Amino acid sequence: METETLPLTPPDQVLSTLNPDGTRRWLAPRLSKGRFWRRRRVLGYFLMVLFNVLPWIQIGGKPAMRLDVLQREFTFFGVAFQPTETVLVVALFLTAFLGIFLLTALFGRVWCGWACPQTVYLEFLYRPLERLIEGKAYSKGPDAVSKGRKLLKLLVFFLVSLHLSHTFLAYFVGPHTVLEWSLGSPTEHPGGFAMVWFVTLLMLIDFASFREQMCTLACPYGRLQSALVDPNSIVIGYDTTRGEPRGKGKRGTEKTAALGDCIDCKLCVAVCPTGIDIRDGLQMECVNCAECIDACDSVMDRIGLDRGLVRYASENELAGGERKVVRVRTVLYSVGLVVAFVTLLFFLGSRKDTLVSVLRIRNVPFMTLADGRISNPVKLRIENRAPEARTYSVTPTQAGYLTMPESLSIEVGPGGTEELIFNVLVDASVFVGGQAPLELVVGDGAGFQTSLERTLLGPR
Ligand code: SF4
Ligand code: SF4
Fold this sequence. Notes:
Elements: H1 35-53, E1 58-59, E2 62-63, E3 65-68, E4 73-76, E5 79-81, H2 86-107, H3 110-114, H4 117-134, H5 147-173, H6 175-183, H7 190-210, H8 213-218, H9 220-228, E6 234-238, H10 240-243, H11 267-270, H12 291-303, E7 310-314, H13 315-318, H14 328-349, E8 354-359, E9 367-368, E10 374-384, E11 390-396, E12 402-404, E13 408-412, E14 417-426, E15 435-443, E16 449-457
Antiparallel strand pairs: 1-2, 3-4, 4-5, 6-7, 8-10, 9-10, 10-14, 11-13, 11-15, 12-14, 15-16
Helix pairs in contact: 1-4, 2-14, 4-5, 5-6, 5-7
The site of one iron/sulfur cluster has 14 residues, from helix 12.
C-alpha cells in the first residue's frame, strides 16, 4: 500500500520496525565484526554454556540455581530461600534490582546489549544460523528466501528452541526430572510435557519472528530506561559536533571542506538490530549492542579519520561537557544496594541449621471423624542445612490435641529436605468461628527446637 493512499498518513516514522502502512518492517541487520562484537561474542558463548550447565551444578548438595515453584523454594548459588524467609527474599530481590538500577544509571542499557538472553541467543545463535541457512538471500528479506531454506531454518530453530525449553524447565524442576520426563511417556507427565511444548512454541515465535520487538515493545526493563538513565549515564551516541553536517564525498577536498566526518554511508543503520539511526540521538529502541560503533569505526579506518564518531559516552560528554559519576541517583542506588546486601549477608549468617515451614494442603481443609473429632491435614517441610543427618520430632503443645500417626519423627539427611504429612485431631468444641489455634514444637533432641503456629479449620 502506498503511503499517499492511506487515510491517515503518519507525519514521520513512528516505529523502526513498522512500515508507514503499519506492516512489519523486517530487519536483516548486517554484521560488523569489530572489537565490541568480538568481546560480546566471547561473553555470549560463555553465557550460553553457563545457561546450559548451571542446572546441573550442585553447591553443597544444593542446586546452583533453582526456582522450585512446586516445593516453593528458590536456590541461588547453593543457598536455599523459602517464601517464609521474607526478609531474606526481600533483601535478595532488592540487591538484584538496585544492582541493575545502579548499573543502568552508570552504564545505560549495557545489560541488554551484552548479557540479556534475548540478545545473546538472537545475535549469537539464531541469527548466525539464519545467515548460514539463507545465504545470500538473507539480506534481501524473507521473500527472497526459497521455501526449502525457510523450512530448514524453521526446523533448525525448532530443534534449538526445543533444547532450550528443556534447559529452561530444568531451572524449575531440576535436570534429572526433566530427563526422566523426556524419556518417559507424555501421559505420565502431561503438565511437564505441555510446559515444554508451550515454552518451545514461545521461543520459536520470539526468535523466528517477534525478535527485536521484544526489546522495543514488550520488555518492561526497556520501558524503564527513561527513568533510570540521565545525561551522565554512558550510552552509545553519535558525536553531532564532529559528524555534522553529514554528506558523501572524500574528505580533505575543497568540495567536502564544509562537511563533518559523517559520510552518510548509513552503515551504522544497516547493522542496527533494532533498525534505528543512532544519529537521531538517544532512543528507547537502542539496546546498546555497540554494532553501530564497530560499523562506524570500520568506516573511519577506511577513510583515514579517527575512530569514535559513534562511541560509548554520556550525553553530556557528546555535547562537549563532562560526565559526573557521583550524582543523587547513583548515591541513592549505591547506599540502597549496600544496605540490602549487608542485610542479606547478616540474615544469611544468622540462619539456623534447620528451617521448618508449614505448607498448605490444597482441597482438604478438614474432616469430621465418626467420633465427632475434627481432623486437619498438616504438611511440614524440614530442611536440614547441617553437614550430618538429623532426626526431628514433632509434637503439638496444647492439651487435647493428638496427631495421627501418634508419634511423629523424620530423619533428614545432610543438606536435605523432607516433608512430613500428618493429621491433627481435636475436639469440635475447640473451634470458635470455624477456627482453632495450633502450636507445634519441632526439635532434633540435640539443641535445635522451634515452635510453629497455624490455624486449624473446623465447623462454624
Ligand atoms: S543504535 Fe547502535 S547500539 Fe543501539 S541498537 Fe542500534 S546498533 Fe545497537
Ligand atoms: S557509519 Fe559513521 S559515517 Fe557512516 S553514516 Fe553512520 S555515523 Fe556516518
